Amino acid sequence: MMDNLRAAANHVVLKIILGLIVLSFVLTGVGNYLIGGSSDYAAKVNGQEISRAQLDDAVGNQRSRLQQQLGDQFAALAGSDGYMQQLRQQSLNNLIDVTLLDQYSKKLGVTVSDQQIKDAILATPQFQTNNQFDNAKYLQTIQGMGYTADNFAQLMKQQLVSQQLAQAYGDSDFVLPVETQSMSQLVLQERDVHIATFNTEALAGKQQVSDSELQAFYDQHKNSFVAPEQLKVSYIEMDAAAMQGKTQVTDADVSAYYDQHKSEFGQPERRRYSVIVAKDDADAKAIDAQLKGGADFAELAKAKSIDTLSGKKGGDLGWMEPETTLPEFKSANLNTKGQTSGVIKSDSGYFILRLEDIMPEQVKPLADVHDSIVDKLKQEKALDAYYALQQKVSDAASNDNESLASAEHAAGTKAQHTDWFTEQSIPAAINFKPVVQSLFDGSLIGHDGAPGNNSDVITVDGDRAFVVRVDSHKAAGIKPFADVKDQLTQMVKRQKAEDQARVDAEKLLTALNAGKGDDALKAAGLSFGNVQKVQRTAQPSDFEQNVYALAQPTADKPSYGISRDPQGNTVLIKLTAVTQGKLPDAEAAQFNQQLQQTSSNNTFDALLGNLRQQAKIKLGSAAQNQ
């Protein structure tokens, strides 16, 4: 239940206009609202001008914010002139509100010191790195938004003044404990109801309708019977994977591939080295002298090498393939097991190298890799054949644009044919975005009775391609009366049933309120069901709203009303008991705070409304231009 109060405190005006985080204004375009001027104005507020440039900047920033939030969905909204005009009007209204608040703050003498502005900038999280103010980040951010340090400071001053004004009005509101108790009882209230249901489906089955009634309903609701655009299509599919099963590979092909690609089927020569790394040339030469004197390489590596990782393993670097061997190792030209290099200088320092072992190149026999080569060659041949077939079919479809006959001959297969379908019911075999776009963009459809065109080759995911042709086309339009007569019959019967249920319910409600309900209910074949507990929800249904609109029952007399259930049936409501809610003590303080915030929002709303009523606001030509 606390969610209801939290939702109530989510006040749009305070969020959009004032906001307690200063940068939220900046990032949504409020930063430009109080700067600049032009003779081609959007509005004048008590003589203070809001320029076209200010409004255009506000709209642009709002567009950018919505684009980031909605992504591709915003493109559809932006295409609506009505929506964009509404967006422009909202932006202008926000500018006017901010200007009014700024003027009122000056009238009250609300001021902000330079130190307060500095503190606000330093405390803004978007200007911090590791919780510390980052001057470079600050300058980069405001410059990216088109501000200098001076005019950004002026902007911050305006926002802080507005905050002080909002806080002043918010702090003046308070909620008495008795108000908190009363509101919590109302919000958490529970109601006991019984319902009697008029079964609309059963009533609809008893209704009679005439053709004239159906025609009248059809004429009044034609827009409810719009038939979407429909197509019948022929298509030829080319599938590289399917062609792979038909591709032949000979033993000669396999042997030739094996001979040309032996490196793919074996392990190249590998060498194993050990190394001692010294800190300078003198140490390296001293170690080299010890080795020449018969010292053990592994023991020296452990004792002397500054590369501790290899040194712990006696200098061992493991096996290396040619492509992973350092150039210095190769240039040492060590070819005999146990051979040691002299001192080698490199970019990494000074080191001495020892060749521990050589593993010759190894190649898997043809028999071991025969099947994998066959699969690879089949795939390559299938792809070659697939691309060749695409070109062949494309040429045929282009040269003979009257039908797919020539393309069928080139493909060596017959075209497939679909039944009627719409853009919302694409057959699975051709349900690929590039194919659907080609079919419904209008380019393949003939006009004024002329035949349509063959498509170009359309490639889709999975190495598949299509050539398509529209065989028949039905433009979007109103469905004929005869096609929707059955649907009309059901709809009119349903409407008549709902009307009858409403009338019958009103009669029964009158009888119930007059104390004669029992006989009336019995005559109608209805009765009230078992008790249902109804509580308020964040987004109440019509049924819940109707239940809570009923007067509280007395000890000897329930309250009655009419509503609809989730299935659309008309229902009689019998309210028998109301239980006041009780707020847990642990949540009382938070509940009171939410109420106080709601009260503050209402007070601020009233202030803003009063400022608008008293202000002289004149709209300019830029208010409408886009």
From TrEMBL:
Keyword Chaperone carried by entry: yes
Topology in membrane: Single-pass type II membrane protein
Localization annotation: Cell inner membrane
Sequence ranges assigned to domain PpiC in this UniProt record: 268-357
Membrane-crossing residue ranges in chain numbering: 12-35
GO molecular function: isomerase activity
NCBIfam families on file: PRK10788.1
PANTHER family: PEPTIDYL-PROLYL CIS-TRANS ISOMERASE D, PERIPLASMIC CHAPERONE PPID
Protein name: Periplasmic chaperone PpiD
